[in-house]
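Q: Could you predict the 3D structure of 1-acyl-sn-glycerol-3-phosphate acyltransferase?
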Amino acid sequence: MKIRDAALGIYTHLEFVTCVTAFLPIMAASHLRHRGDVTQREPGRWMRRLGRTAGSLTPLWKFTIEGEPPPDIQRKAHVVVANHPSEADPFLLAWLPWDMRWVAKEELFKTPLIGWALTFGGDIALRRGDGSSVRTMMTECESAIAAGISIMIFPEGTRTRNDDAMRFRDGAFDLAIRTKAPLLPIAVAGTKDLRPKTAPWIARGHACAKILEPIPTENLTAEDLGALRDRSRDAITAVLPDLRARHGY
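A: Sure. Here are the predicted C-alpha cells for 1-acyl-sn-glycerol-3-phosphate acyltransferase:
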C-alpha cells in the first residue's frame, strides 16, 4: 500500500502541474478580458474550477463541505476566514459554492505556474510586515467588497504545525468592521494529513470544511476588533474536535 500510495503521490504532483498548465491560457484570457472588473468574479471562477479539477483527479483525496452558506452571499460580500492547516486547503475550499477573491502572501505570486494562476485568478497579494503592502491590500479588498464580492483570508497568516489554530491576526477583522461586511468563519479539518507542512509528499485521506454561522458587523467599531477576532477563532476551534472525531482525523 505504501508503494502504491507513493506512486499515486507522484502521479498527483504531475497531475497538478498538468492541470495548471492546461488552465493557464484560459485563465490568462479571462484575466485580460476582465482586467477592469474589481470583483474579478469570472477569473476567480476559473481558479475555483482549476482547484476542483486538480483535487478531483487524484485518487488520494476526498473532500466534504458541511453547513449551509448564507443565502445572500452571492449578492452581499462577506469577509470569509478559515484556519489553515495545509497547502491542500485551497483545493478543499475551491468547493465552497460562492465567488471570492483570495488574499495570499506575495511570495506565492512569484512561484512558476501557481503564481501565474493566482495572478490570472484575480487574487490579491500581501507582503507580510510591509505597511504599504497592507494598505494597498486593504484598499483593494474594500473596493472589491463595495462591488459585492467576498474576500477570503487565512487570519493565521501561515500554515499551522499542529491541530490547534494559531493566534489570528487583526487584518481580516479590521476589514470586516471597516466595510460592515458580515464575517463568515470556516472550520477546516483533515487537510494537514493530506499535505503535511514539513513533508514533501502528498498523502491519502479525507478533509472537511464546515461553514459556520456568519457574524454581523454593522454595529461594531474599531474597539470591537479584538472581540470579533476572538469570537471567530473560538467558533472555529469549538467545532474542530467534532469534525476530527466524526471523520477519524
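Q: Anything worth pointing out?
A: The two ends are 19 Å apart (CA to CA).
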